[in-house]
Amino acid sequence: MGFFKTIISKLRQGLERTRESFVTGIRSILLGRRLDEDLIAEVERRLLESDVGVRTANRLVGGIREAFRSGRMERGDQALDYIKAQLKTMWPPADRELLTAGPGNKPTVILVTGVNGVGKTTSIAKLCRTLRDRRATVLLGACDTFRAGAVRQLEIWSERLGVEVVKGQQGGDPAAVAFDACAAAKARGVDFLILDTAGRLHTQDPLMRQLTKIRSVVSKQIPGAPHEVLLVLDATSGQNALRQAEEFDRAVGEAVAAGPGDQAGGGGGRGGVTGIFLAKLDGTARGGIVIAIKDVTSIPVKFIGVGETPEDIQPFDPDAFVEAMFAPDQSAGHGLSGEE
Ligand SMILES: Nc1nc2c(ncn2[C@@H]2O[C@H](COP(=O)(O)OP(=O)(O)OP(=O)(O)O)[C@@H](O)[C@H]2O)c(=O)[nH]1
Ligand SMILES: [Mg+2]
Known about the structure:
Elements: H1 8-14, H2 16-30, H3 37-49, H4 54-69, H5 76-88, E1 108-113, H6 120-133, E2 138-143, H7 150-161, E3 164-166, H8 174-188, E4 192-197, H9 205-221, E5 228-234, H10 239-258, E6 275-279, H11 289-296, E7 301-305, E8 313-315, H12 318-325
Parallel strand pairs: 1-4, 1-5, 2-3, 2-4, 5-6, 6-7
Antiparallel strand pairs: 7-8
The structure holds guanosine-5'-triphosphate (GTP) and magnesium ion.
């Protein structure tokens, strides 16, 4: 994704707790040891206890066990390299691209959704800053008319970032704000329109219908939009985040299929969530959840949040992520050549 760069040191810092709790354990039992059945069973136990997901854990251990029994793998170091190499192949490059309107068709519309407090508005500020730094023009739409202070929060970010916000009345119809925002985005010829929405649970029917209505309004105003429906998940919520991904994808998809007048569809094709922004990876030991998300859903993680400032965004880059997760603790910087 040309717009975004991976800052390895920040990623490594962000994944510190994950590394300490999960990876260091596996590293320490494998490094410098000869493999045997007991050691492989111990690796299996640790992987199953971690957040990587049962399917991935079984696949990794199955591969190690098979290679060990057939004499192709003898040392723990080889097993560790195997785990890293396998993890890095889990995400095809196309998965990580931000879906855009394509040349001559701007604006690209990004609709941001998720449960209350997961980091939607902050993640929007991060996205906005990166896009703007890359000389793309951005407009924000404050479609969270529900929570008192939500519009102001987005406005404060926008002032800091030097972009404009289209807003409506507190308690007003978010779809009307989306309508105005689309009109303004077209009139001003901006490259990106990012729509902030109120936090909601997938089970809250009226709120899910409201989201469908926003989509419908957007797709009528701008054919093919929203190009991205970005679900923000809070990495600290671990397996809960995983459930939210599954449930939001289903609920958003079903709502679109059943909803009124969204025949033009969104950029998501089947109508569900097109990408995940996994926020708060810095505050958690559960970074393995990135792997579990891939394990159980088909929704690509596109961005990760590693702090509270607009700079704390990273594209999800599997190589960098796995390297950062498995980086030796003492020798930060060893073996990595990311941009700083
Ligand atoms: N450490 C850390 N904190 C984050 C990150 N992203 C967001 N936060 C914090 O999470 C809290 C909630 O963030 P918001 O962006 O307001 O979340 P929201 O989803 O928009 O919340 P609602 O609009 O109320 O649903 C804030 O204190 C943010 O600073 C992150 O990547 N790392
Ligand atoms: Mg918000």
